Amino acid sequence: MTHTPGLVVTGASGRMGQMLIRMIGENDKMRLVGAVERKGHPWVGQDIGTAMGGPALGVTVTDEAVDAFAKAQGIVDFTTPEATLEFAALAAQARAVHVIGTTGMTEEQIAALEPAARHAVIIRSGNMSLGVNLLAQLTRKIAEALDEDFDVEIVESHHHHKVDAPSGTALMFGEAAAAGRGVQLRDVADRGRDGITGARQKGHIGFSAIRGGDIVGEHDVMFLAPGERVILRHIATDRSVFARGALKAAIWGQGRAPGIYSMADVLGL
């Protein structure tokens, strides 16, 4: 057990946090050594297992991330962009693998991870699932093969609690399509249409977001031309696919050279 990587889960009380904690407990290739929550959270000071309504796990929820990270080999982080940037610096100090599933990060925030990546492994992805990462590779290949006579539209659907739009996964598909066409997504993205917008600009990549109910995550990448359509679709029915991928990444990152990696690296795509 002493050679099994110890993992810390940030945002421990959240839906992803609790799922990660349960899955770590079921996996003999890892162990839970810390659970972090924001200052003032009612779970701070409680055993994480008890707080989750189950048996005690021997790990106390803390708001002192630096102490928790000091005894960890991996940090699994599905929180907010601002918190993730703070955690990246602390994870780098601890030389712990930092797996980032946080969505809604701006280009500037992503770039701000680079100093931490000089000292530790960072694995960041807009989506941790195997299927999504395979679909991103297909998106890039199709975008390479089809010219601008094919309009690209990305439609994503999520539960009504989601706070960012477009989703990180939708932007991931957009980046893949843009890369396939040799352009920067920021130069061709249409992220909102309202009112008299004029005709669609050739070569642009459109995004549409649906929010409602308990949708875990659905994404369509559409290539649309007169007379034909190519549609790629991924549907997630359980958040465990994201947690499973994140934990796979935390193990994969052990012993790697410092730097920023993606799930495509983890999966060898």
Automatic annotation (TrEMBL):
Subcellular location as annotated: Cytoplasm
Gene Ontology cellular-component annotations: cytosol
Family matches, as PROSITE patterns: DAPB
Major location category of this protein: cytoplasm
Gene3D superfamilies, per the entry: Dihydrodipicolinate Reductase, domain 2, NAD(P)-binding Rossmann-like Domain
Catalysed reaction, written as an equation: (S)-2,3,4,5-tetrahydrodipicolinate + NADP(+) + H2O = (2S,4S)-4-hydroxy-2,3,4,5-tetrahydrodipicolinate + NADPH + H(+); (S)-2,3,4,5-tetrahydrodipicolinate + NAD(+) + H2O = (2S,4S)-4-hydroxy-2,3,4,5-tetrahydrodipicolinate + NADH + H(+)
Binding site for (S)-2,3,4,5-tetrahydrodipicolinate: 159, 168-169
Residue ranges annotated for the Dihydrodipicolinate reductase N-terminal domain, each copy included: 7-128
All residue ranges annotated as the Dihydrodipicolinate reductase C-terminal domain in the record: 131-267
Single Gene Ontology BP annotation: diaminopimelate biosynthetic process
Keyword terms: Amino-acid biosynthesis, Cytoplasm, Diaminopimelate biosynthesis, Lysine biosynthesis, NAD, NADP, Oxidoreductase
Pathway: Amino-acid biosynthesis; L-lysine biosynthesis via DAP pathway; (S)-tetrahydrodipicolinate from L-aspartate: step 4/4
Family membership: Belongs to the DapB family.
Subunit structure: Homotetramer.
UniProt xrefs under NCBIfam families: dapB
Protein's job: Catalyzes the conversion of 4-hydroxy-tetrahydrodipicolinate (HTPA) to tetrahydrodipicolinate.
Protein name: 4-hydroxy-tetrahydrodipicolinate reductase
Source organism per UniProt: Seohaeicola zhoushanensis
